[in-house]
Task: inverse folding
């Protein structure tokens, strides 16, 4: 489904100006990689530019006119010169070679409306290696008036040969004042979650809407309770099953990243949810053990595509956490 959003995100403006200038000069790259952390609106930017490319007469500011038949078709997700590929089932699942082959076929056809053909891969870093490699030939000999947009959080995960053929459009988290101002207007309750979201406003908004804050604070409380021997890893794991393993690990990584900032830099923890417990934890864990534990969590995250028993994985990570924090805790006594 392709939905056109009319409320533009203010932090897109600098990169938007560059894209609009390429279009005005008739020098649109054949392949564009829109790259940035989650929650910056990468897909929205790509779809907005696709609308410009597909519109009969874009406005002077580079926007699609929203009035012509082609703009209507694109808004309805039925423009024949627009093609988008997403993971088939699970949004975090792989994008497979068959999907990319169909996309390449689309790019090779001639345009139905005599203009650009625009294809999106979202997220491109979910392409299997075979899928990514199958795009190479198309990028080496790009078809006329075809534009491929790759949307990626971790561009480095794509083969270097593919990356080198894309124009990089890098989105950065906006300055804090801009992000806070925008959230104040759209979702004030998310302002306090901005740091947790790595400065990405849409992610902070998603956290606020999903009740992430409560879960995050609860997880930090559990980490502390396990270190202090007030809570058994097995029982804690029971309470967390059902949240979804991917989300749970993401929460754990957020908490550990905050903890690492405090432990490695010896700085005070900022005013974020769970601050007091994090501060206590930062006194209890040794930095090299924290580092090793974070690596273990990353390793677990890498195998999430495999069928895993949610409770056992959480239990295992809680037990490892207790072990990781044990030495320093016993020193302190
Ligand atoms: Zn139009």
Result:
């Amino acid at each position: 489904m392709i939905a056109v959003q009319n409320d533009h995100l203010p932090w897109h403006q600098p990169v938007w100006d560059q894209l609009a200038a390429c279009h005005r000069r008739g020098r649109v790259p054949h392949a564009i990689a829109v790259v940035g952390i989650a929650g910056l609106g990468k897909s929205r930017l790509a779809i907005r530019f696709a609308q410009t490319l597909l519109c009969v007469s874009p406005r002077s500011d580079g926007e699609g006119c929203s009035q012509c038949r082609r703009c209507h078709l694109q808004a309805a997700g039925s423009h024949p010169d627009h093609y988008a590929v997403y993971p088939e089932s699970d949004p975090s699942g792989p994008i497979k070679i068959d999907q990319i082959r169909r996309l390449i076929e689309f790019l090779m056809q001639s345009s139905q409306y005599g203009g650009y053909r625009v294809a999106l891969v979202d997220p491109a870093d979910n392409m299997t290696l075979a899928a990514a490699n199958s795009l190479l030939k198309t990028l080496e000999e790009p078809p006329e008036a075809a534009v491929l947009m790759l949307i990626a959080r971790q561009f480095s995960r794509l083969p270097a040969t593919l990356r080198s053929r894309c124009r990089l459009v890098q989105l950065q988290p906006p300055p804090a004042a801009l992000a806070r101002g925008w959230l104040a207007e759209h979702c004030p309750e998310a302002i306090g979650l901005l740091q947790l979201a790595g400065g990405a406003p849409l992610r902070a908004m998603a956290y606020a809407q999903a009740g992430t804050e409560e879960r995050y604070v609860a997880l930090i409380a559990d980490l502390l309770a396990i270190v202090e021997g007030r809570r058994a890893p097995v029982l804690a794991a029971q309470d967390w099953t059902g949240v979804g393993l991917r989300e749970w690990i993401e929460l754990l990584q957020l908490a550990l990243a905050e903890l690492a900032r405090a432990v490695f830099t010896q700085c005070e923890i900022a005013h974020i949810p769970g601050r007091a417990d994090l501060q206590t934890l930062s006194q209890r864990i040794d930095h090299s053990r924290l580092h090793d534990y974070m690596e273990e969590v990353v390793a677990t995250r890498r195998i999430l595509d495999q069928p895993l028993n949610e409770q056992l994985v959480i239990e295992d990570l809680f037990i490892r956490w207790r072990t990781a924090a044990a030495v320093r805790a016993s020193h302190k006594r």
